[in-house]
Design brief:
The structure holds 2 protein chains of 2 kinds. Chain A has 4 helices and 4 strands; from the N terminus they run αααββαββ. By secondary structure, chain A is α+β, with helices and mostly antiparallel strands. Chain A has one domain: Trafficking protein particle complex subunit 3 (Muramoyl-pentapeptide Carboxypeptidase, domain 2, 2-Layer Sandwich). In chain A, a hairpin with a 4-residue loop joins β1 and β2. In chain A, α1 runs antiparallel to α2 and α2 packs across α4. The radius of gyration of chain A is 16 Å and the shape is globular. The mean pLDDT of chain A is 85. In chain B, 40% of the residues lie in helices and 24% in strands. Chain B contains 3 helices and 5 strands, in the order ββαβββαα. Chain B has a 5-stranded antiparallel β-sheet with strand order 2-1-5-4-3, sandwiched between helices. Classes of the chains: A alpha+beta, B alpha+beta. Chains A and B meet through α2 of A and α2 of B. Chain B: Its main location: cytoplasm. Chain B: Keywords: ER-Golgi transport, Transport.
Chain lengths: 161, 139
């Protein structure tokens, strides 16, 4: 079925559109940061809506770890059709989610080729996780890093006021 | 049939309030406001007491002489409050639950609407019509 691939194509077009838009407006020095924040903002809003739909029937979460487990299992399955492969935490508000075969990066390469281009394609997913967590009451900062495609790590740092 | 329905955001300000006899509106606003305290109490009490499954439906919050107030909280900490007339033949628990379920479904649709910014008052006509269907018909 071609359904799975529809979002991947849309996502690729989104990224290239945002970057092309920025380039045509000029201001070459700060375009990279604005593009990333635009993509992240889009992901944020979508994450908020998605989480409302996914948690409609499930009972309330006991604590932060429970929320992270939900993100790693149900949320990731619904969005990327697989679970997170590894979740690590320091029990002090920092979580690292590792996905060994990230759905949006599988088409790029199987090693280090195109590594510099990868962060653009992770911005939207970072926003997605941030939006989901913020709607569940956890304010956080989400960053992503890739060292070897297609595996990537998302780092979630919960902001405690 | 409800007399007043309110949707309250995480930060405890109203996203949507509608009551049927429009002249008594202020009284209903006050009732909903005071019921928020009870909701907070229930949310925190359940958290400490039992570690097992917590339901979203909170049940009867408190009865006054004229009205009964029911509450429901979503996972994103948005609260729904329904006020029903006590003189009305008491609605069964299941009916109240199904009203909340419809409200939650409708609210989820509002959330997914790209023209809606989370935190704004709800302007959606679809949501409005679902709510009107649940309220007592104005005589």
């Amino acid at each position: 079925m071609a359904d799975d691939v529809l979002f991947e194509f849309l996502h690729m077009e989104m990224v290239s559109h945002i970057y092309k838009d920025q380039a045509s407006k000029g201001e070459m020095d700060k375009d990279r940061a604005t593009c990333v924040s635009t993509l992240e903002g889009m992901g944020f809003r979508v994450g908020q809506g998605l989480i409302e739909r996914f948690t409609k029937d499930s009972p309330s979460f006991k604590d932060d770890l429970d929320v992270m487990k939900f993100i790693c299992k149900d949320f990731w399955i619904n969005v990327f059709r697989k679970q997170i492969d590894n979740l690590r935490t320091n029990h002090q508000g920092t979580y690292v989610l590792q996905d060994n075969k990230f759905a949006l990066l599988t088409q790029f390469s199987n090693g280090k080729q195109y590594l510099e281009e990868a962060p653009k394609y992770l911005a939207y997913s970072c926003g997605l996780v941030r939006g989901a967590l913020s709607n569940l009451g956890m304010d956080c900062v989400v960053t992503a890093e890739v060292s070897l495609m297609p595996s990537c790590k998302f780092q979630v740092v919960i902001q405690k006021i | 049939m409800a007399v007043c329905i309110a949707v309250i955001a995480k930060e405890n300000y109203p996203l949507f309030i509608r009551s049927v006899p429009v002249q008594n509106e202020l009284k209903f606003h006050y009732t909903v406001h005071t019921s928020l305290d009870v909701v907070e109490e229930k949310i925190s009490a359940v958290g400490k007491a039992m570690a097992d499954q917590r339901e979203l439906y909170l049940g009867l919050l408190y009865p006054t002489e004229d009205y009964k107030v029911y509450g429901y909280v979503t996972n994103s900490k948005v609260k729904f409050v329904i006020v029903v007339d006590s003189s009305n033949t008491s609605l069964r628990d299941n009916e109240i639950r199904s009203m909340f379920r419809k409200l939650h479904n409708s609210f989820t649709d509002v959330m997914c609407n790209p023209f809606y910014n989370p935190g704004d008052t709800i302007q959606s006509k679809a949501f409005d019509s679902i709510v009107s269907a649940m309220m007592v018909q104005a005589s």
